[in-house]
Amino acid sequence: MALPPDKASELKQIIRQQLAKMDVHGRIREVLAETIRDEIAPEHQQLSTDDLMKALRRRGIIDDVMKELKVVTDMNDQEVTLDPKPSTHFVDRQLPVLKKSDGSKMMDATTMLSICDPVHMVLIKTDMFGETSLVASYFLEWRSVLVAENRITNIAVELLGVGTESKVSVGVLNIRLEMYPQLNKILSQEIINTQFALERQKTAEKERLFLVYAKQWWREYLQIRSSHNTRLVKIFAQDENGINRPVCSYIRPLRAGRLLDTPRQAARFVSVLGYERAPVIGGGSGKQEQWCTLLAFLCRSKGDCEDHANLLCSLLLGYGLEAFVCVGTKAKAVPHTWVMTCGTDGIITFWESLTGHRYIHSPIHPDDPPLVEQPKPTYPYRTIGCIFNNQAFLANCQPSDAVEVCAFDLRDESKWKPMSEEAIKSVCSPGATTSLPPFPPLCASTIDAAVASNEIELQLRILVSEYRKDLGLTTVWDDQLSYLLSPALAAYELERTTSISAGNEEFQDAIRRAVPDGHTFKGFPIHFVYRNARRAFATCLRSPFCEEITCCRGDQVRLAVRVRVFAYPESACAVWIMFACKYRSVL
Question: What is the pLDDT along the chain (587 residues), one digit of tens a residue?
Fold first, then answer.
């Protein structure tokens, strides 16, 4: 008796699931490979179906499949069950029909035309000392290849400088674009031009409407309190190309995959990226306005505090935290940005993106009686003007903008004036023509930590020996003492990452055993975010403690140096160096 079409489809689905569970396809491939290799004569060029079936029967694969697929069909209630697994019972009166799709099929040209994200290209210059600088940042419109008859097009683009040189040409780049696989049908130039014109019109209208809304919102904010005019409420910021963008567009949830395991490890990663303020041409104490896009920041591995805060906020959002970038000031009214997270228990935590330090915010209540003990702030922040992330922008409208007295009840509009989420979404949401292209995924480090540690340590030994030779001193290295310094360096990095100190007792006990009675031990640890040994040694000599060790005089002087490189994504690294010496004092 033939099965109804719907039940036949259901039966096929059950058989597919069982075959996949038994890995029948894999077993058939193994048999096929063995048969071709062992049983088919070299003069035979093809393997027939009968040969394959005979091989499968000899190995008992067909019998195993038939035993597992003993199907019992009950036509009375139209239920299909599998035997011998009575615990699995399939009942579905209206099984959904799955459409067959070809995963290797490329989308057509019309669909690709709707993808408006450009290709972001960044040009970096690296000098002989490994220092990087940002030369150009360019957003390439790639869709011109959709009209190329031979799927190849050549484009010449003029690259402009960045920051204060954003109007200065740095060169012309010839680009060859080629589409793989070849499109079945190409588009006409007229269609491309019409699409670009519509996108430009739509973008201009969205930007105009958001600007009108932002001006109205700002007027309302100033009417609350006249002193609001002096607060750091930053709605727009210039990128490296001098383009004004809403600050919310610099943030987007970013997942680190398996490269970073915890939010604190992410904070540590951001902190080891170099800090560099945008250069200012001319005198004065003003600060050059430049917020780098994420790709430009990661490519040169250094940036200003805003770049660090934007990256850290994006990573914390990726970990599912409610994170915001804070714009305010620190000591001496210096503008600064940092990150804040709001816990479900109401705890506010500040994250300093330049150091990875965390601070719990405990507000001071000025109206409390004088005898009530008030918390003492441990964070370096003084005022806060606004906070934002990829979906929200809120301005501080409390009587005082001092961080220590601020309440972070973000749902209370009498304390924090919000912008419309719909207005922000119109210009900052992913896929919007006005927003930045999708953030690139983080790349795994290309640094071999062990090799890099050995290389820097060897170079430092040579530099110390030469330095002491110039002073007329001999140098004797103690390899065992150098090795004993490793646990201390690992403990320092662990403390920077987790704020937990561990392993100090074992390190001190090992040093006591290695230093004989009557001898003195001195150690000097220091931390860097670069791997230039000569530059690091020059910095170390500025410390009187390090100079005292490298210039140590006495009886039975033994020197030690240990380097430990901790690799992070994007080839960022934390480099810990410890100089040490032991000697018998003759005084």
Answer: 455 666 666 666 677 776 666 676 667 667 666 665 565 544 554 556 666 667 767 766 666 666 655 543 443 444 444 444 444 444 444 444 444 445 456 678 888 888 888 899 999 998 887 788 899 999 999 888 888 888 888 999 999 988 888 888 999 999 999 888 777 788 888 998 999 999 889 989 999 999 999 999 999 999 998 889 999 999 999 999 888 999 999 999 999 999 999 999 999 999 999 998 877 665 555 567 789 999 999 998 999 999 999 999 999 999 999 999 999 999 888 999 999 999 999 899 999 999 999 999 988 776 677 767 777 888 999 999 999 999 999 999 999 999 999 999 999 999 999 999 999 998 887 766 567 778 888 999 999 999 999 999 999 999 999 999 999 999 999 999 999 999 999 999 999 999 888 878 899 999 999 998 888 999 999 999 999 999 999 999 999 999 999 999 888 899 999 999 999 999 999 999 999 999 987 66
In a domain, 173, yes or no: no
Structure tokens at 294: 């994420």
Q: Is 197 helix (H, G, I), strand (E, B) or coil?
A: helix
Q: At what angle do helices 5-22 and 61-68 cross, to 10 degrees?
A: 130
- Residues 523 and 374 occupy one common structural domain: no
In one-letter notation, the amino acid at residue 379 is: Y
482 and 414 both lie in a single domain? no
Residue 107 and residue 155 in contact, taking contact as beta carbons nearer than 8 Å: no
Q: 52 exposed, middle or buried (CB, 10 Å; 0-12, 13-18, 19+)?
A: middle
In a domain, 123, yes or no: no
Q: What is the pTM of this model?
A: 0.78
Q: Exposed, middle or buried by CB within 10 Å (0-12, 13-18, 19+), for 460? A: buried
d(CA 80, CA 97): 17
Closest CA to 464 of 521, 533, 412, 404: 533
Q: Do 404 and 506 fall into the same domain?
A: no
Helical packing angle, 263-272 and 305-318, nearest 10°: 160
Does residue 245 sit in the same domain as residue 379? yes
Give the domain CATH number at 332.
3.10.620
- Expressed as residue numbers, the domain containing 486 is 449-584
Q: Report the relative pairing of strands 335-342 and 323-330 from DSSP bridges.
A: antiparallel
Name every residue whose Cβ is closer than 8 Å to that of residue 517 and which is 6 or more positions away in sequence: none
Helix (H) / strand (E) containing 323? strand 323-330
Three-state DSSP class for 468?
Answer: helix
Residue carrying structure tokens 């019409």: 194
- 466 with 363, same domain: the answer is no
Half-sphere exposure of 31 (CA within 13 A, CB side): 19
420 and 462 assigned to the same domain: no
Pair 488, 406 in one domain: no
The domain that contains 489 carries what CATH number? Answer: 3.40.33.10
Half-sphere exposure of residue 301, counting CA atoms within 13 Å on the CB side? Answer: 19
Distance CA 436, CA 314 (A): 14
Regarding whether 504 and 422 lie in a shared domain, the answer is: no
> What's the rounded Cα separation, in Å, for the pair 437 and 430?
8
The count of domains in the chain is: 3
